[in-house]
Design brief:
The complex is a heterodimer of chains A (330) and B (168). By secondary structure, chain A is α/β, with parallel strands linked by helices. Helix content of chain A is 38%, strand content 22%. In chain A, the strands form three sheets. In chain A, strands 5, 6, 7, 8, 9, 10, 11, 14 and 15 form a nine-stranded mixed beta sheet that branches. A four-stranded antiparallel beta sheet of chain A has the order 2-3-1-4, with helices on one face. Chain A has a two-stranded antiparallel sheet with strand order 12-13. Chain B is of the alpha+beta class. The chains are: A alpha/beta (330), B alpha+beta (168). Chains A and B meet through α5, α8 and β7 of A and β3, α2 and α3 of B.
Chain lengths: 330, 168
């Protein structure tokens, strides 16, 4: 653990430059966040990212072909004067460029024909590649975007164990699973770090995060967390991922995702788990979009396997910022 | 929070309450139930249906599972919106009220649908469907007097708009 302490200091405790201070004041960010961008991307690209983050994200939805054909949903929304176009790399994803009223207030929404979901978030569940008739655990399931997508992709045949601790969020999870017509699930109200279950074939851990990747949707995320907060978030992510490997059967897969562009919530979490456990291998992520994860940061060299994980950037891929990594217990 | 007991089948006394609802609607219990289990909370029993009875599952931490059929409070069974979806396939048994486009809008705002917007009418508890036959929720078909004239109406019991109104 001594090694981690030293590495922790390098990963979390870097100095903030004058350039970062200037940009953070200009765009309203916590300065350490901008400094990290500068170290990862350089000046020009950091400015580009910060500018893109100023533009709100267009709405998008995933049609629920478990209940209705996707082209029928598209047709009905167009009849209601929504401007809708297919997202090329997402089989059920559509972008809404104009809404005459809220996308969440249509009859089709109430009937469970679609789920309002951002493209990066949709991609995560496709990359999990859930298999029919398997047991899949969603360790941080609310409000149910990926949980409903797992059941949709397996035609309600996989046994989904959806775990959520927060009372308010769990209601939304249940209501979304019901609204979209699924029934092959258990919802557990529990801290996922204390779970005791057997027989999990696949695990999705869309980890609680700083949400730095969704600044376009929630600008408050620019400066919501201090470095100490980020350390706490990192610790929770590390504990959750370790737990995921305790739960999954040998040969089973774990997909880790964090809606963040922070190395502390992505590469460094995976690195720590790989250093601690010898029963984990990183799998290639066959994603239609995304960049390789970083293998070096602030003088710290991460485990080379980390390079198989991927990153989504708002300014490069026009999605939320995401870190995604597929792994297997060996 | 649930107790440490294993999940169990719904007791016969409660099953009778669900059966009496099914009878009022005009369907058989077996048309929508196979393995009814329950979770008790807030003075009511939430009833779920599972295609296969699961291996022993402790009720501890269990919040929901399987197909949500409805809940029992006191002597009454209250059907879920999911059940209206499941049973809407049986509209040919004349268990549905069919409404037009305007009626659909009104119903989803939890308001009464008047005669001019009812395409097919059934008295008493029913599933309400739109012109396409898509389920909108549960309603009650009634004949009421308005300006000394008897008219048919459908009052909502629980409509799909509830998903939005409850904020989930």
């Amino acid at each position: 653990m001594k090694t981690f302490k030293t590495i922790d200091e390098k990963v979390f405790g870097y100095k903030v430059s004058k350039e970062a201070l200037g940009l953070s004041r200009r765009f309203g960010y916590a300065s350490y966040v901008v400094e990290r961008y500068l170290r990862l991307l350089g000046m020009e690209e950091t400015e580009e990212l910060l500018k893109v983050n100023e533009k709100p994200m267009p709405e998008s939805y995933r049609c629920n072909d478990f209940l209705i054909a996707c082209n029928e949903v598209e047709k009905r929304l167009k009849e209601k004067k929504f401007l809708v176009s297919k997202i090329p790399f997402l089989p059920h994803g559509y972008e809404v460029t104009f809404s005459p009223y809220s996308l969440g207030a249509t009859h089709e929404y109430m009937m469970g024909y679609y789920y309002i979901q951002d493209p990066g978030s949709m991609l995560v569940a496709y990359l999990l590649d859930p298999r029919k008739y398997t047991t899949i655990v969603d360790m941080a399931a609310a409000p149910g975007g990926k949980a409903t997508q797992i059941l949709q992709l397996t035609e309600d045949s996989s046994r989904l164990i959806a775990v959520e601790y927060k009372r308010k969020r769990i209601k939304a999870l249940r209501s979304n699973l019901q609204r979209m017509g699924f029934s092959n699930y258990l919802i557990l109200r529990h801290d996922a770090r204390k779970l005791k279950i057997k027989g999990a074939d696949m695990i999705l851990l869309d980890s609680p995060s700083s949400g730095e990747g969704i600044i376009r949707k929630d600008p408050g995320r620019k400066a919501r967390y201090t470095r100490d907060d980020l350390k706490k978030i990192h610790t929770i992510q590390y504990e959750l991922l370790n737990k995921a490997f305790d739960l999954v059967e040998k040969g089973g897969e774990v997909l880790y995702a964090a809606c963040s562009t922070a190395v502390e919530e992505g590469e460094y979490v995976i690195h720590k788990v790989l250093e601690r456990r010898k029963d984990v291998e990183v799998l290639r992520t066959p994603s239609p979009i995304g960049d390789k994860a970083f293998v070096e940061y602030n003088g710290v060299e991460f485990n080379a396997e980390v390079s198989k994980c991927i990153r989504l950037w708002p300014h490069r891929h026009w999605t939320e910022g995401f870190f995604i990594c597929r792994m297997r217990r060996i | 929070m649930q107790d440490e007991e294993d999940l169990a089948l719904l007791p016969k006394s409660d099953l009778k309450k669900v059966e009496s609802f099914a009878r009022a609607l005009g369907v058989s219990l077996s048309s929508f139930l196979s393995n009814p289990v329950f979770l008790s909370r807030n003075g009511r029993k939430d009833v779920f249906d599972l295609p296969l009875f699961p291996k022993p599952v402790t009720k501890k931490y269990l919040y929901s599972l399987g197909f949500y059929v409805g809940y029992i409070k006191g002597k009454v069974f209250y059907p879920s919106l999911m059940l209206s979806k499941r049973l809407s396939r049986l509209c040919f048994l004349r268990i549905c009220n069919r409404v037009d486009g305007f009626g659909e809008k009104v119903f989803l705002y939890n308001r009464r649908v008047l005669e001019g917007h009812i395409i097919e009418f059934r008295k008493g508890i029913s599933i309400v469907v739109n012109e396409r036959g898509e389920p909108l929720g549960w309603g009650v078909g009634k004949a009421i007097y308005m300006k000394n004239k008897e008219i048919k109406v459908v009052d909502p019991l629980k409509d799909l708009g509830w998903y939005l109104r409850r904020g989930g």
